[in-house]
Q: What sequence folds into this?
DNA sequence: TTAGAGATGTAATGTTATTACATCAATTGC
DNA sequence: GCAATTGATGTAATAACATTACATCTCTAA
């Protein structure tokens, strides 16, 4: 089984981690996830990191590099352009509110293309692109 | 003294850290910098982090979020659009070769605008934007 | 039924970043 | 001059994030 387009069957640990992230309504660090899952038998960081690796590979979870934290993917399945990253989209971008910690996930074709064009012009072969906007969301900026 | 447009006078520690990054021809972690500067009297991480904070604030150094590492800014002074981030540019983007660790710093008006437009449409007020493309540079992809 | 692959559990360690507290030097206002 | 403030520095300790190493275990395909 490789690079499934639809959600694959998850292992127990993967399902627990994914569920925790879905309930969270915001990004969580690996160690926060670990704490949430202690009641379910989790005892070591590696259990979380292994599950996160897989979920990320499946495109079901994203890592926020500027936060060292993780969020469940907010895209609906089959939405918009199928990309190299499985699950149904190309590069995703994030707007992260530094006040309320809310994260907006979005996709922007033009940005995607523009960066792709730059890469092509330089002979650079992208494997993963990170776009994160830190700032204040509408509510918090008011 | 606040938010200088030209390079401010650096303190001894700031100058040492900046110099180390300039010589490096590639990103360095804070602890790598620390090791390089032990001969110059550095003994603790905080000495490095404090200098990096200031240099970043001055726009002379960038943090690569996906690497937890730092690079000296590759822009010439006075080049292109003066932005909110001092030093003479708006958002910068990075292409990071995962094979040879070379980093290309660039600026793309269209991407900048496009993300700005998205933010405006959502009422989001950006403070800092991260754009990092991981992949293989032309040489390493060949 | 056994060899391989993948998932799991656990401990230990490595790497990155911050908090807390003390000191020192330059500047400002009196 | 000389407090008072501000900013830079030094040091130790700790917190936060992530990986390596090794031992099982379970399923499945030959």
A:
């Amino acid at each position: 089984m490789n690079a499934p387009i639809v959600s694959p069957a998850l292992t127990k640990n993967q399902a627990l981690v994914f569920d925790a992230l879905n309930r969270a309504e915001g990004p969580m660090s690996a160690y926060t996830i670990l704490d949430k899952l202690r009641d379910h038998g989790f005892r070591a960081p590696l259990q979380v990191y292994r599950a996160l690796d897989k979920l990320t590979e499946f495109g079901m979870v994203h890592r926020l590099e500027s936060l060292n934290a993780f969020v469940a993917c907010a895209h609906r399945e089959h939405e918009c352009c199928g990309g190299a990253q499985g699950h149904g989209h190309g590069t995703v971008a994030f707007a992260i509110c530094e006040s309320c910690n809310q994260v907006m996930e979005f996709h922007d074709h033009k940005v995607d293309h523009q960066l792709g064009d730059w890469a092509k012009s330089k002979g650079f072969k992208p494997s993963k692109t990170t776009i994160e906007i830190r700032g204040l969301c509408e509510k918090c900026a008011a």
Q: What stands out?
A: Chain B has a mean pLDDT of 88.
